[in-house]
Amino acid sequence: MGHRVGSAPLLLLLLLAFCKGRIVRVPKSPLIRVEGTETVIPCNVTDYDGPSEQNFDWEFSRGTGFVRIVSTWDSLFTSQQYQKRVGSGEIVLRRSSNNAVELLIRSIQPFDQGEYKCITPSTDATVQGNYDATVQVKVIADGLTVSGSKARSSKPRQLSEGDSFELRCSASTTSSEHTHLQVTWELKNGPAWQEILSLTHEGKFQPSPEYEERYLSGDVRLDTVANDIYRLSVSQALPMDEGLYRCLVSEWVKDADSSWQKIQEKNVEVASVVIQQTVLDVLIATSNMSVTERDSLDLTCNITTDRSGIFQAQVTWYFSESPDDTLSDAQVLLSVDRDSVVSDSPLISLSHVDRNSYHLLMRDVGVEDSGYYFCQAAVWVPQHNGSWHKVVEKTSSPVSVVVTALELDYQIVLNASKTPKFSDDPTELECRIMNAQNTEANLRFTVSWYYRMRLRSDAVVTDELLATMDADWTLLVGDKSRERTQNGEIIFSKQAVDTFSLRIQWTSEADRGDYYCVVSAWSWHHNNSWVKSKDVTSMSVSVFWATQDYTLTVEAVKLKPFFVAGHTFEMTCKVSSQNIKTPRYSVLITAEKPLMDQSNPHGTTRIISLNQDSVVRLEDWTDQTRVDGVVLEKVQENEFRYRMYQTQMSDAGLYRCVVTAWSPGGGGMWREAVNGLSNPIQIDFQTSGPVFNVSVHSDNPTVYQGELADLLCIVTIDGVALEPDDMSFDVSWFAVHSFVLDRAPVLLASLDRKGIVTQARRNWSSDVSLERISPMEFRLRVHGSEDQDFGNHYCIVTPWVRSATGVWQRQPEVKSKPIFISVKMDVLNALKYPLLIGIGLATIIGLLSCLIGYCSSRWCCKKEVQETRRERRRLMSMEMD
């Protein structure tokens, strides 16, 4: 029982939501309006049936019967006493939307006080809700008076920018109702009135967005004097304050719904204000001038203004390299504020000669001080609250100043104190400053060393920087000499104030050429920095000695002229050299394979090397089964022997010795002298062995998703027949996932000759397997095929054949032609689950619709029509017909 009682209100609310009817609304009573003002009474209807556009009738009553005023659909609805006012437009019924209208009385009078009824003719199938609503209107006398403190003068008030002024207006009301006044000051200096500051009917001060900042700072205020006087105070006049001022007063009353309603508004023009802007001229007394370096620069800024009374000036000096630079781009030199406080600077002074002159003095000027100088002045006036206001600001025209540099004179002499006669001898160069004139204490010299290669032709060679010093004597090394400088092979030093040296500990042939130095003079300037003033370049000094060209001859000899696969290949390399002092040799063995060899498509392979210290290293030898199959050894000082054990068919090619001669360099290091290449030794196996062929086959190259795809790799032999035990195969399967072979192949799986299967990593759910089903057939299976498994598939086979001596020989790789595998989609299985889900959802929604319809017909009852339906047109009585 408790559950039934609790559910009854909820069910009732649901029934009311389904069964609500028409609602006609007007404002709450009473509506208080002032005599002679425009009055608007709105009316709207909601929750109705029928057409969207509804009709309205308005009627009026003073306590007896209702009199018809106006209708939206019947032009004959208006009673006789209202026909004149409706016809003249004094009373208008205007539609604001399809379901809302407004009754407008342009000038309401005391006899319009009474009750107004809004009626909507029925367009509903059943009678539900209300079809009319009434509102009481009360008309009160006009008791609002507004005036200026004095009659508006025809002569404008003349003010200077920054002055203060006040404006007053008087506003009062004798209304019988409890009303509030709102006072707003407005300014007109254009086509429209602009709001300044308001005292609202709720007693709040409300500035306009344009005056909000000035209101918060106290520059614009609104206060009351006595009871009815409202004063606008402006403490600092700006050019924007010029124009005509008026006082706008509105009267507000609180309606029955507790909302404030403006019932009337009046205004009075108070005064016209003219703001005279302050005139300011800023001029630098000196025209364009020239100053010698280390002298003083003297400039004067003169300001004139028409401002009288108390004011202070602020002056700032600027420097710019271009006359077109803005203040933000220019450099501030010095400034004096309105309190005559000068900013600090050690070499620049600013003095206030008199009220209108400001003197700038710069001592010890430099070339970098050449440019454009200008000053900026601003006039400040005091305010009532003790603060200062800037009324005008102006910048002078720039003055060009050229600082002439002192001509510093000195000469540079470069000598070679030590010159090499042979390779690895030391070299020492001295760069000396001579006959320096016009030097001073704040001056220092730095050096830069350069190298130029000597060529026999007329080719242009770029000078290379070896090292340079900056103004702090920090050494910066060039790319050519960085490593040798770090190793101590090249030494840069300053031996005296006027002498710089360059020493190469062990001079090589690559160091032969021309050397010169560049000495730079640096001056210390008042901005606490070093500035380069001059560069002087010396004559070049040649470092060169006569040498004979190195020669190197390498001869390769094949020790065994005839051999077969599986035997040992052996060759020697004999080296002879000339003009190389105590040489040592490093040897590299290379092989040039045939172009048909797919394991080395580039042709040349580096096999093994032995350096000048007899350290052996395997280079590109990748046969893991024969890691110890190659040997390179030093037989004599100029003879080397190379052996390759158990040669394979794939070892065929041309073999050479690449020899490099090394000579002792400085610091115990070896220096490369010359390279040599031997004659080729050929390995060529003459055989008439079997020829292997590979093909790919599939019984069903087209499969559906999820099915199994079978592919066979079949090996056949032409020529000499072999026993199955004398041959084995490495098999690899590849796929190109495209219709044409325009992408890189992807490894699927591989099976080596020992039967070990390796599968590549896959990014989808299908799987592959690879197995040997006969001595010459290998099967690849793709389990659970997907769209990504389509494409061209092929296999690569590497045959291995056992020779008569029992050695396994690797044969060239054989590649099959590709076969295309296509994967199709099973449409029935793909659509099965979406169809089942759709049918289930449709069934549930149908049952829910039937349940809602049953409940609505059970609980929502309708009432029969109790009165005659009123149509849009008047119908003629049948008796008259």
TrEMBL record:
GO cellular component: membrane
Gene3D superfamilies xrefs: Immunoglobulins (2.60.40.10)
Alphabetized InterPro entries for the sequence: Ig-like_dom, Ig-like_dom_sf, Ig-like_fold, Ig_sub, Ig_V-set, IgSF_V-set/TM_domain
Keywords: Disulfide bond, Immunoglobulin domain, Membrane, Repeat, Signal, Transmembrane, Transmembrane helix
Protein location: Membrane
Pfam families tied to this protein: V-set
Domain of life: Eukaryota
Its membrane topology: Single-pass membrane protein
Stored PANTHER family: PROSTAGLANDIN F2 RECEPTOR NEGATIVE REGULATOR (PTHR12207:SF3), V-SET AND TRANSMEMBRANE DOMAIN-CONTAINING PROTEIN (PTHR12207)
Protein name (record): Prostaglandin F2 receptor inhibitor
Organism of origin: Chrysemys picta bellii (Western painted turtle)
Lineage, broadest ranks: Eukaryota, Metazoa, Chordata, Craniata, Vertebrata
